Amino acid sequence: MTTHSGGCHCGDVRFEVDAPADLDVSYCNCSICRMSGYLHLIVREQAFRLLTAENALSTYSFNTGVARHYFCRRCGIKSFYIPRSNPDGVSVNARCIDPGTVRSISVSDFDGENWEANADSLRHLTA
Predict the structure, then answer these.
(1) What is the mean pLDDT of residues 24-44?
(2) Cα(126)–Cα(17) distance, rounded to whole angstroms?
(3) pTM, whole model, 2 decimals?
(4) Distance between CA atoms of 125 and 127, rounded to whole angstroms?
(5) CB under 8 Å to 14, separation ≥6 — which residues?
(6) Where in the chain are the domains?
(7) Fold of 2-111
């Protein structure tokens, strides 16, 4: 495992995440992920550490309200969130990891437009 650092565009939000140097991430085609270009690195809650005070964040929820999307209050970047598929974990936006610790990124498609039919395929990521 490697400790990766990352954060938002302006630097107000910073985090660390323990994950392999070779990342397996998902590209979801649901409306919010498609519009933002989010690349999901879903990890157990214990593998993620927010290094910034929570008052630097703004929260957005929609539909069922289970997912909690966290955005930087200043620049608006969503560098991580609590996913509906894995509410016991954290989804880090792989695009927000600082250069230097990621050796490779393998991207798989996830059909989030048909979320209900496909969500179970992500549950193993935090099991």
Answers:
(1) 93
(2) 14
(3) 0.90
(4) 6
(5) 5, 6, 7, 50, 51, 52
(6) 2-111
(7) 2.170.150
